[in-house]
Amino acid sequence: MIAPVTVPCPGAAIAEAARSALPVLRTKRLVLRAPVLSDFDVFERLFSSPSAKFVGQEPDAEAIWAQFTNYSAGWVLRGDGMFTVCHGDTIVGFVFAGVEPGDQAIELGFFIAPEAQRQGFAFEAAEAALAHLRSLGSERIVSYVDPANTASQALVAKLGGEQTGTLDGTLIFAYPMDDDGGPEAYS
Predict the structure, then answer these.
(1) Which of 155, 89, 159 is nearest to 130 (CA)?
(2) How many secondary structure helices (H) and strands (E) does the chain include?
């Protein structure tokens, strides 16, 4: 089974110092922060569920670990990545604000735990991450949504996303870059 290394590392303080330089987003009820190794247990549980699919396929343990490490490493390699979404001391999900192989633009993605759904957490977290991406001057931000996932389609529409095409069987939704639909406010 694939799992994070738990052997104590003398460089842990370096990792903590690096994490402290990463963005932390705060909303009325949530904190969005960079992931830590202990978040993997929740990530694995959520992405092992039948509702989690990567481009139409249920992920195996290696794919789940690859997703977690890609989005975590993105912070160091590209300056983008995954936020762990916390409500108090509880992880309620994850928001992706980055790229992965095959993406055509910066991706905004979200996955909220079933027990935390229908409370507005996905919208609140995604809205904060979208504002963060816009503030960085991203040229294009998209969400990739499974055609059968009507809940995500509704959330993307509520965030202002408009369907612009498809990629490998998923719907592509692009977001306006400001309230007027142009990039001027973030230049």
Answers:
(1) 159
(2) 5, 8
Which residues are CB-neighbours of 50 under 8 A, at least 6 positions away?
58
Q: How, if at all, do strands 90-98 and 106-112 pair?
A: antiparallel
**Per-residue pLDDT at 113 exceeds 80:** yes
Gap between the Cα atoms of 13 and 91, Å rounded: 23
The DSSP code for 181 is S
Query: DSSP 3-state assignment of 39?
Result: helix
Look-up: residue for tokens 């612009």? Answer: 164
Q: Are 63 and 54 in contact (CB under 8 A)?
A: yes
pLDDT tens, residue by residue, 48-104? 876 665 445 677 888 889 889 988 999 988 889 999 999 999 999 999 998 887 777
Q: What is the pTM of this model?
A: 0.86
Tokens (6 digits) for 36: 């830590």
Map residue 73 onto helix, strand or coil. helix
- Single out the residue of 142, 126, 151, 136 nearest to residue 183, CA to CA: 136
**Which residues lie closer than 8 Å to 107 by C-beta, 6 or more apart?**
96, 97, 98, 99, 100, 141, 142, 143, 144
